[in-house]
C-alpha cells in the first residue's frame, strides 16, 4: 500500500524525500540548502546490510552537545580485494544526555545486537578530548570513557575538505566493484545517518558565495 502511495506521489511530481518522510516516517531533509554529499543516492546506497560476527565492528562516536550519536560499521573486503564500508545500525535517538547515560545506551545497543562480535573498536572526533564545562572536573567525553569504562579510541588526522572529497569519491565510484556491491552501504536501521547524507548535512549557503 505504501509503495503504491509513493508511485502516486511520483506521478504527481512530488519530492520523493517529502513523500518518504510522510509515508514511511523516515528522517529525510525537509529544507533547502546545498548538500554536502549530493552523490548519495537512497536507491543505490541504502540496502539490507548483513552483520558478520567474524568481522570487527567500529563504533564511530560523535559527541554533539545536544544530539550525540554512534554509528556501528564494518569494513568488508570482497573477493576482488575492494573494501566495502557497511553501516549496520546507530544510536542516535538520545538528546542532551550526560556522557555516562549515553555510554549506557551505546553499551545496551552493543550487548543486544552484537554481543557475539569478535572485536569492538571505537573511534571518534578529536574534539571529544576537549575539556567540557558541563562536567565538574572539566574532562572531555573521550577522557571520561577512557578513564571510567576502559575504552580505547582511535582517530586519524584529516583536513575537512580532503575527507569530504574522499567520501564523495566512495559514494560516486565511477567503476563499480566487480562483486556488484556498492562501496558505501547503509542499513535502514540508520535513519538519522541516512537523513544526514540525503541533505540534512548541508552547506548553509552556496559554496560559491
What's the layout of helices and strands?
Elements: H1 2-11, H2 16-24, E1 34-35, H3 42-45, E2 57-62, E3 69-77, E4 83-91, H4 99-113, E5 120-124, H5 141-149, E6 153-154, H6 160-171, E7 184-186, H7 191-200, E8 202-203
Parallel strand pairs: 2-5, 4-7, 5-6
Antiparallel strand pairs: 1-8, 2-3, 3-4
Q: What proportion of the residues is helical, as a percent range? A: 25-40%
General shape: globular
Number of β-strand runs: 8
Secondary-structure class: alpha/beta
- The secondary-structure element order is HHEHEEEHEHEHEHE
Radius of gyration: 19 Å
Low-confidence stretches: none
Brief summary:
With 209 residues, this protein is of the alpha/beta class. The protein has helices at 2-11, 16-24, 42-45, 99-113, 141-149, 160-171, 191-200, and strands at 34-35, 57-62, 69-77, 83-91, 120-124, 153-154, 184-186, 202-203.
Amino acid at each position: 500500500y505504501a509503495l503504491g502511495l509513493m508511485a502516486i506521489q511520483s506521478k504527481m511530481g512530488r519530492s520523493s524525500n517529502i513523500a518518504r518522510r510522510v509515508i514511511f516516517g523516515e528522517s529525510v531533509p525537509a529544507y533547502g540548502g546545498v548538500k554536502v554529499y549530493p552523490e548519495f543516492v537512497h536507491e543505490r546506497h541504502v540496502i539490507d546490510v548483513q552483520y558478520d560476527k567474524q568481522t570487527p565492528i567500529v563504533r564511530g562516536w560523535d559527541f554533539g552537545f545536544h544530539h550525540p550519536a554512534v554509528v556501528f560499521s564494518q569494513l568488508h573486503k570482497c573477493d576482488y580485494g575492494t573494501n566495502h564500508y557497511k553501516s549496520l545500525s546507530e544510536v542516535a535517538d538520545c538528546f542532551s544526555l550526560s556522557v555516562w547515560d549515553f555510554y549506557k545506551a551505546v553499551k545496551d545497543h552493543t550487548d543486544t545486537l552484537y554481543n557475539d562480535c569478535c572485536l569492538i573498536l571505537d573511534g571518534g572526533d578529536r574534539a571529544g578530548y576537549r575539556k567540557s564545562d558541563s562536567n565538574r572536573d572539566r574532562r572531555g567525553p573521550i577522557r571520561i570513557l577512557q578513564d571510567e569504562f576502559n575504552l580505547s579510541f582511535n582517530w586519524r588526522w584529516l583536513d575537512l575538505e580532503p575527507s569530504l572529497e574522499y567520501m564523495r569519491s566512495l559514494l560516486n565510484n565511477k567503476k563499480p566493484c566487480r562483486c556488484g556491491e556498492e562501496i558505501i552501504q547503509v542499513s535502514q536501521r540508520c535513519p538519522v545517518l541516512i537523513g544526514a547524507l540525503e541533505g540534512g548535512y548541508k552547506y548553509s549557503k552556496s559554496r560559491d558565495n
